[in-house]
Amino acid sequence: MTLTQEQIARLSKLSALNVDSHAQIDSVLDSLHMLANTDTTGIEQDSRSGAKILALRADEIIEDEKIPDELLECSPQKVAAHQIVLSGIMHGE
Questions:
Q1: Dist. CA 20–CA 70, nearest whole Å
Q2: What is the 3-state secondary structure (H, E, C) of 6-54?
Q3: Distance (Å, rounded) from C-alpha 9 to C-alpha 15?
């Protein structure tokens, strides 16, 4: 696929490209044309293409006040009122 000088000049003005980029623009357009004409028959789309719905699991809520406190005990920082105290942000340090 090739472009006319008028099309290149318009692209150059729109995207601030040098008109000297004619060969580069042709190369990019040729690559896009090749991709658009690639036969993908029999190739299944993967989840990144957005065609499939991701399987979600239900959230499991654990009602146990002890677990958050056990997690806070792992912190090397000071803990107060069931929160990690950040220096200069929370009062009481």
A1: 65
A2: HHHHHHHHHHCCCHHHHHHHHHHHHHHHHHHCCCCCCCCCCHHHCCCCC
A3: 10
**pTM of the predicted structure, to 2 decimals:** 0.30
pLDDT at 62 over 60: yes
**Amino acid sitting at position 26:** D
More confident residue, 80 or 65: 80
State the CB neighbour count (10 A cutoff) for residue 85.
16
Of residues 73, 12, 6, the one with CA closest to residue 84: 73
Closest by Cα among 62, 40, 35 to 51: 40
Residues 11 and 3 sit within 8 Å (Cβ to Cβ): yes
Give residue 64's Cα distance to chain centre. 35
Side chain identity, residue 58: A
What pLDDT shows up at residue 12? 75
β-partners of residue 79 are 84
